[in-house]
Write a structure and sequence with these properties.
Bound molecules: adenosine-5'-triphosphate
Structural class: alpha/beta
Number of domains: 2
Low-confidence stretches: 1-5, 591-617
Membrane topology: Multi-pass membrane protein
CATH class of the largest domain: Mainly Alpha
Strand content: 5-15%
InterPro entries: AAA+_ATPase, ABC1_TM_dom, ABC1_TM_sf, ABC_transporter-like_ATP-bd, ABC_transporter-like_CS, P-loop_NTPase, Type_1_exporter
GO molecular function, one term: ATP binding
Pfam families: ABC_membrane, ABC_tran
CATH topology of the largest domain: ABC transporter transmembrane region fold
Keywords: ATP-binding, Membrane, Nucleotide-binding, Transmembrane, Transmembrane helix
Radius of gyration: 36 Å
């Protein structure tokens, strides 16, 4: 993504919001460095006084010693001030970086799921780690040094002109090509700086995807292809870094030879002027000593400008995420969710419409559906018909684009997201577990306030019951039982085991509404029936919506809703729908949807009533 044309200064000034707490120390540290640099510039003036005074006139030894002591004192003072800079600036820089990182993460949690289609995991990782590190280094070193070097160069230039206007003018002629080259450098470097940061993010994405999908890569023997891809991206990044280094070295070269050349011309001219008594020897010594003090600040300007442009690229990437408005927000005056009615919570989808993006086809086109309190409703439809989409509207993971979702008569958009998500628990088909103990993974399903009020024994009991209902007793046989860390995304567990822990997490908080996206697909039919019976026993009064692909799952529900062409075209008991609803019959017999035998095929569904009866018993 090319950098915007907004000025570097404006982009970097926005950092003040995060840097404000550190500003007093940064300013104090910068002032210490500035004073140290000005002291360095004062030394030549002392030399001028010594040469023109005691050395060339009366030869007073005492005056020379005094001058030497003054130079020594100035040197010590300069060293102390440089130390002060380090002591003052290092710590606040790290806390600014930490705050920015935390804000970025908090904001990411608030952003819609669709954001992840735009920025991959690696890009977000790079933005929150590498980019912020670059910004912090610039803030505590680059910015301070840039201000100090620029001020030193300006003050030095004035001193040169005051010491000898003619020599100063000759020396400062070099500023014209330097400024022009600096402008060119800025134009070129900001493009490659941004490209390098984007490519580093892409490279991080490759690593993340390969590690994540390592089993697929190995199973299909695609390790070499992944390596080739990685090497290509790493080469591209290296090429861009070399472009940066080349631009940087061209600038540094120009900043070294142009001032050196003009200084050489000024030296020749100065010697002639001193020989013809047009300038004093003391002034000549002071002139060249000042120019020598300016050499390092001048040479460092290229590097510091490069750092600034790197920080600007990092800042832009950080602000792009921060400027992305959360699609969902809490209402200004939220309504409180009333206590759970005795019979359970009633969920209503009223003329719900939804499209995944502006201008894209509507997935849901006027869904009317009531989930009766305390009952289980199975949602059935062809693959891609919008079942998962519909499910995600209930806990308000997305907002409807038309119509409304109501919990006990209240629009979910009038409640706080915390209230809605505390009331509605979800288990997805692909269960994501976190790198934490089994206990912590399960307790994640309990709303924070309720968890805080629980004693450790009560929390353990909630975990035990949830795992029992989800038939996840296998966790007790893990090496450390409930304390076993189940690893990144629970990779050390089988698919069915992960699903059961994720289900336990969904029910641990005894939610008012339970939304299940085919969460038992990896279980055998007998275990699924046991889990469903457990849910009925424990979650009495919980209203449940479950996406079902298998007849066995449907048979366990009280009612079935059929999703067809973005609408609910039938609601009823499984057996009745099977007899009266052709699309329902087709969905259940299609065995994989469009590739199945088709609407005309004879259903081969086992009679589910027997299974349901068995489970209820
Ligand atoms: N984040 C998204 N951005 C854009 N389109 C999406 C997104 N998620 C789903 N879709 C599209 O919305 C449609 C419905 O998808 P959805 O996952 O809701 O179907 P489903 O009925 O749950 O399918 P399945 O039974 O295979 O799980 C599909 O055409 C899908 O491509």
């Amino acid at each position: 993504m090319p950098p915007s044309d907004a000025s570097t200064t404006r982009a970097l000034l926005r950092l003040v919001r995060w840097a404000r707490p550190a500003l007093p120390r940064v300013v104090a540290g910068g002032s210490a460095t500035l004073v140290a640099s000005l002291i360095a510039l004062a030394v030549p003036q002392v030399l001028r006084w010594v040469v023109n005074g005691p050395l060339l006139t009366d030869g007073s030894r005492a005056a020379v010693v005094q001058a030497a002591l003054l130079v020594l004192l100035l040197g010590v003072l300069e060293a102390v001030l440089v130390w002060c800079r380090r002591a003052l600036i290092a710590t606040p820089g790290t806390s600014v970086e930490r705050t920015m990182r935390t804000d970025l993460f908090r904001h990411l949690l608030d952003l819609p799921v669709a954001v992840h289609d735009r920025w991959s995991g690696g890009q977000l990782l790079q933005r929150s780690m590498g980019d912020l590190h670059t910004v912090r280094r610039w803030m505590v070193f680059g910015l301070v040094q840039l201000v100090v070097s620029a001020t030193t160069v300006l003050v030095g230039a004035v001193l040169l002109l005051v010491t000898s206007p003619l020599l100063g003018a000759v020396y400062l002629c070099g500023a014209v090509p330097v400024v022009w080259l600096g402008f060119r450098f800025r134009q070129d470097y900001k493009v490659v700086a941004r490209r390098a940061r984007d490519q580093a993010g892409d490279l991080a994405t490759s690593v993340e995807e390969s590690v994540h999908g390592i089993r697929v890569l190995k199973a299909f023997g695609r390790g070499e292809d992944a390596l080739e891809d990685f090497v290509r991206q790493a080469d591209e990044l290296r090429g861009t870094e070399l472009d940066k280094a080349r631009a940087q070295s061209r600038m540094s070269f120009a900043l070294a030879w142009i001032p050196e050349t003009t200084l050489a011309v000024a030296l020749g001219l100065g010697v002639w002027l001193a020989a013809t008594d047009r300038v004093s020897v003391g002034a000549l010594v002071a002139f060249f000593a000042t120019a020598a003090v300016m050499t390092r600040p001048v040479e460092s300007l290229g590097q510091l400008l490069g750092m600034t442009l790197d920080a600007r690229a990092g800042t832009d990437r950080f602000l792009e995420v921060m400027d992305t408005a959360p699609a969902l927000s809490d209402p200004a005056a939220p309504v409180a969710l009333p206590p759970v009615p005795a019979e359970g919570t009633r969920v209503e989808l009223r003329d719900v419409r939804f499209a995944h993006g502006a201008g894209t086809r509507e997935v849901l086109r006027g869904v009317d559906l009531v989930l009766e309190p305390g009952l289980t409703t199975a949602l059935v439809g062809l693959t891609g018909s919008g079942k998962t989409t519909l499910l995600q509207l209930v806990p308000r993971l997305y907002d409807v684009t038309g119509g409304a979702v109501l919990l006990d008569g209240l629009d979910v958009r009038d409640l706080t997201r915390r209230d809605v998500r505390g009331a509605v628990a979800v288990a997805f088909e692909d269960p994501i577990l976190f790198s934490a103990s089994v206990r912590d993974n399960v307790l994640m399903g309990v709303p924070v306030e309720r968890l805080a009020a629980m004693s450790p024994q009560e929390a353990d009991e909630a975990v035990r019951v949830a795992l029992d209902v989800a038939r996840a007793g296998f966790v007790h046989r893990l090496p450390q039982g409930l304390d076993t860390v189940i690893g990144e995304e629970g990779m050390s567990l089988s698919g069915g085991q992960r699903q059961r822990v994720a289900l336990a997490r969904a029910i641990a908080g005894r939610p008012r509404v339970l939304v299940l996206d085919d969460p038992l697909s990896a279980l055998d039919v007998a275990t699924e029936a046991e889990v469903t019976a457990g849910l009925r026993r424990v979650l009495t009064g919980t209203t449940t919506l479950v996406v079902a692909h298998r007849t066995s799952t449907v048979a366990l529900a009280d009612r079935v809703a059929v999703l067809e062409d973005g609408r609910v075209t039938g609601v009823g008991r499984h057996a009745d729908l099977l007899a009266t609803h052709p699309h329902y019959r087709y969905v259940l017999t299609a065995e994989g949807g469009p590739d199945g035998p088709g609407p005309g095929a004879h259903p081969t569904v086992p009679d589910p009533r027997g299974l349901a009866e068995e489970v209820r018993r």
